[in-house]
Amino acid sequence: MNWNDVVAEGQVHIEDYCGKQQEAANGFFALHEATLKPGALDTKHKELMALAIGIAKQCVDCIGFHTKAAKEAGASRSEIEETVSVCVMMGGGPSLMYGTKALEAYDQMDGA
After folding, report:
1. Mean pLDDT throughout 3-28?
2. What are phi and psi of 60, to 5 degrees?
3. What's CA 86's distance to the chain center, in Å?
4. Average pLDDT in the 55-64 region?
5. Cα gap 84→108, rounded to integer Å
6. Gap between the Cα atoms of 55 and 24, Å rounded
7. What is the DSSP letter of 2?
8. DSSP code of residue 42
9. Residue 7 contacts by C-beta under 8 Å, 6 or more apart in sequence?
10. What is the pTM of this model?
């Protein structure tokens, strides 16, 4: 799987949706932006949390987007690995399998 392609394809689908459902999309992305702003937790840790939820929910696109965002926010591979370990503790085998996808994505992602 090419994770840069996964994110690029997901972006195309998001843009299509945003063009047709502007008001709902604007609401979602306003929440997204407000939630990920640094506060008591920095953006990197919030992205690691979002990645963990993406793994737990078995959302391939979420794994791609939040791995990329976590990496851009300064997350190391070791931090992704520990995030995966927490997911495995909470979700067992399925989290292991989807968690390894996050590690593969991290290794392939452009940037940071």
Report:
1. 96
2. -60, -45
3. 15
4. 97
5. 17
6. 25
7. -
8. -
9. 61, 64, 65, 68
10. 0.92
